[in-house]
């Protein structure tokens, strides 16, 4: 509704100042009560929040990797330089602190972020990006956001070791069971050393690559690059899975509420189900 008011600002102003229209208004204070500057400010704040909510509520994409980047976006939005939202801003910031103060130390958020090739270098949480925003800088510093990449690399390395250690242990056990002792220059010892070197270089190579564009789908990217990073791809498959969410079912109830209005009270259940089915599947129409 706010967006429509802002889009129709000129039309509304002309309408409210038109003499013949004003004459029919019971309360002329409505003309001066609409603060379009405030509406534009609220739109600037709420529109990105709507996009973030829709992205996080997705049932077809990985979303755990979006939490930390979106937190920094929201904090930046709350740094708007305006006295008109001075009451709302502290309240929103307090709620952010209440729910997300430990987000940058959460293992799953950190692994999800570093396993996303778009955000793995945590460029969204670098200190030099917030030199002008004192509140944001202090909040992120308190949340230990600037040390998040180091902690994420540690978690990724731990997961990497869990997957690779059994392979090395089995190989070492088999080699020790041989009746003839193997020297350090033996073929098997060289093979073990080469395997360890290749796995560690896999992790180093992945972290050294530049971040990708925001439009890149991490699931598609991992499907295309799992042969290059086989071990990390297994970790990504574990932590970048699409989470279970109640959002789609809630949307169905919302749609059914719109369809079954008071003027459509005689619709049969089968007809309502068919209307909901067509609404939810219209995107697949040829």
Automatic annotation (TrEMBL):
<dbReference type="InterPro" id="IPR008906">
    <property type="entry name" value="HATC_C_dom"/>
</dbReference>
<dbReference type="Pfam" id="PF05699">
    <property type="entry name" value="Dimer_Tnp_hAT"/>
</dbReference>
<protein>
    <recommendedName>
        <fullName>HAT C-terminal dimerisation domain-containing protein</fullName>
    </recommendedName>
</protein>
<feature type="domain" description="HAT C-terminal dimerisation">
    <location>
        <begin position="202"/>
        <end position="281"/>
    </location>
</feature>
<dbReference type="GO" id="GO:0046983">
    <property type="term" value="F:protein dimerization activity"/>
</dbReference>
<dbReference type="InterPro" id="IPR012337">
    <property type="entry name" value="RNaseH-like_sf"/>
</dbReference>
């Amino acid at each position: 509704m706010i967006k429509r008011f802002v889009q129709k600002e000129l039309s509304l102003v002309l309408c409210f100042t038109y003499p013949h229209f004003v004459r029919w208004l019971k309360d002329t204070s409505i003309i001066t009560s609409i603060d379009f500057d405030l509406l534009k400010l609220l739109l600037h704040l709420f529109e990105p929040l709507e996009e973030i909510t829709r992205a996080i509520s997705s049932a077809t994409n990985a979303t755990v990797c979006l939490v930390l980047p979106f937190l920094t976006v929201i904090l930046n939005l709350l740094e708007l330089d305006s006295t008109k939202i001075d009451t709302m801003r502290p309240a929103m910031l307090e709620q952010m602190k209440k729910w997300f103060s430990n987000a940058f130390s959460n293992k799953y958020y950190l692994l999800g972020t570093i396993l996303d090739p778009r955000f793995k270098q945590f460029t969204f949480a670098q200190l030099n990006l917030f030199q002008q925003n004192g509140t944001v800088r202090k909040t992120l510093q308190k949340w230990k956001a600037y040390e998040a990449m180091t902690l994420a690399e540690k978690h990724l390395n731990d997961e990497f070791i869990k997957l690779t250690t059994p392979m090395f242990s089995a190989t070492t056990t088999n080699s020790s069971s041989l009746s003839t002792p193997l020297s350090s220059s033996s073929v098997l010892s060289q093979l073990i050393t080469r395997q360890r070197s290749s796995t560690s270089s896999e992790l180093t190579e992945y972290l050294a690559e530049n971040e990708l564009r925001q439009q890149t789908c991490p699931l598609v990217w991992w499907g295309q690059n799992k042969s290059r990073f086989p071990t990390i791809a297994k970790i990504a498959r574990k932590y970048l899975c699409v989470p279970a969410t109640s959002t789609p079912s809630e949307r169905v109830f919302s749609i059914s509420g719109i369809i079954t209005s008071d003027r459509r009270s005689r619709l049969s259940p089968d007809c309502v189900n068919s209307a909901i089915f067509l609404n939810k599947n219209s995107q697949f129409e040829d």
